[in-house]
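the two lines:
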Amino acid sequence: MTAAIAPGAIRRAFRHPSFAIGAGLTALLVLVALVSLIWTPYSPYEIDMAAKLAEPSGGHWFGQDQLGRDILSLAMAGAQNSIMVGVIAVGVGLTLGMILGAIATAEGGWVEELVMRFSDLTFAFPAILSAIMFTAVFGPGIVVSIIAIGIFNIPIFARVTQASAKAIWAREYTTAARAAGKSRARITIDHVLPNILSALTVQGTIQFANAILWEASLSYLGFGTQPPHPSWGRMLNDAQAHMFDAPWLAIYPGVAIMLAVLGLNLLGDGLRDLLDPRLVRSR
Amino acid sequence: MALLDVEDLKVSLRTSRGMAQAVRGVSFQLERGDTMGLIGESGSGKSITALSLLGLLPEGAKVEGHIRLDGRELVGRPEAELCKIRGNRIAFVFQEPMTALNPVHTIGRQVAEPMTIHRCITHGAARAEVIRLLDRVGLPDASKRVDAYPHQLSGGQRQRVTIAMALACGPDILIADEPTTALDVTIQNQILDLIGELVAESGMALILISHDLGVIAENAARMMVMYGGSVVESGPTAEVFRHMGHPYSQGLFAARPKLGAPRGEQLKTIPGTVPELADLPTGCPFSDRCGLVIDACRTTPPPAMPVGPDHVARCIRLDVALANMAVAR
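prediction for all of em together
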C-alpha cells in the first residue's frame, strides 16, 4: 500500500532548511511535552505567595508568576495542552473533512455543491469568533474549545480534499479504473486517497499550528483552558496585568507559542516542497 | 443475435454553450472475432462513441438509441450493473500509458484489479495469473517486474501492462482508443501486432480507434470513418481503401505523408478545421469544408448510399466523388 521511501530521501529531507528547522522545533515541542508528563522542575500547581513575581534566577530559570508558580514548569506543562488540542482538533477536522471532501468529489452534482457551499458558509465566519460563540453556548472550557476548533477545521480539510481529489479524478488512471469496473467508492479508497495524502499531510501540519494559536487565543480571552490547568494562552492572560513590572511572565509563554507555531509552519512548508516533486526540481 | 449491437446511438454532451450532439445516430454490429477500425479527426465523436459503450461519459451526458450486449440493453442501466460489465465483458485500452496507470501502486496490483473486482479472488491468489498475463503481453522478466512501479517502466512496457489489465478477465470486446498514439513508431507496430495476436487467439471482438489510416488498414477488417459525430463512410477495410467514396475519407487519404514523394512537396490538407459540435451545419456535417458541395448538401443530412458490397457512404455527390478519385489514381 505505502510506497517505499527512496534511499537517500531522509538525508535529502534534512538538507532542506525549512524542513530541518521545522522538524527540530516540532521535535523539541513534543519532547518538552513528554518530559513534563513525568518531570517538571516544580509542580505547575505549587503556589508560593512569598516569591510572587520573582525575577528569573538560578532556582527558577524563567522566574515566578503572580502566585509564585514556577514559569518554566508552567510553560512545560502548557506544551502538553497545546499538543493535545492540536492532535484532537486536527484529527477531528481531518477525518470528517476528508470523508466529506472525498464523498463530494466522488458523487459530484448536487452532493458536491451542497458540501462545498456549506464549507464556504463556515469560511465566511472567522474561526475564532465562531469558537467564542460555541463557548458562549456550551460554557467555556478546554473540551468545548477543542471541539470548536476541530469543527472549524472540517471545511478546510474538506476543501483541500475536494480540490486535490478533483485533480486525481481527472487523471486517466481513474477512468481506467472505472473502465475496469470499479465503483466510485473503491476508486476513492484505492486510487484517490493515496494520491492526495501528501496534500492532506501538509495541510494537517499547518492546521496543527493554527489550532495551537486558536487555543492560545481562546484561553487568553478566558474561553479556553480554565485555571488552574496550565496553558500558554492562559499564562499570557495572567501576564497582562504585569507587563511592565514583570515582563518575564509574558515573554516565556509568548516565545513558546511563537516557536511551536513557527516550527510547525516550517515543517509544513518543508513537507510541501519535499512531497511535491515538481517544486523540488524547480528549486 | 450479434455480440454487440449499436443502433442509432445519439450522445449529447453538456458544454458551456448548452447541449451539443457529439454522436448523431451511429449504428453497427460486432461479432466475436470481428475487428473494426474507427477513424476520424479529434472531436469527430469516435472516443465518445467508445466511452458510451461502457457508460463512462462525462457528467450530464445524455444517451439515446440502443446498445445491446448479447441482446441485453445497456443504455439506461444503473451504474452498479454497468460496473459488472466494465473490465469483465468489455475492456478498454487507453491512449496514454503514462497516465493510465496509478503511480502509487505496483503494476502487479493494478493488473490484478479487474480480477479482484469481477472474480472475487484476492491479490495474492491472482499473482500467478498476473505474471502469466504480463508474460503473455511480452513484458520482459515478468515474475520480477510484477512488483515494479509504473515509473520504472518505459512507455511501451506500460502500454503492455494496460493491455494485460484489459485482458485480465478475458473480455468479449476490447476497445483500444488510439493505443499507440503516445508511443514511438517502432513500438507502435509491436503493440498493434500484440493486440492483433491476442484478438485472434481469444476470439474477442476489437474496436480499434485511430486517426491513422495506416493503422486501420493493417489491423482492422472493417472500418467506419467518423466526422462531426456521424459515420460518413463504412465498409470492409479493403473495399473502402479501393473505392474511397466520401470526400472526407478521400481528403484523409490524400493528407497522408507518402514515402518517396518528391522533396519539398507539401502535404495535402483538408481546408478549414473541424467545427465545434454546436456549430455543425444542419445538412451534411462536412458541407462547409467540402469541394463538391451543392445547395442540397446543406439542407438535409445525406442518406447512406451504396458504394460496393457492404460498403456505404453518406454523400449525395457520390458519383462525382468516385469519378474524381478514379481520375486522381
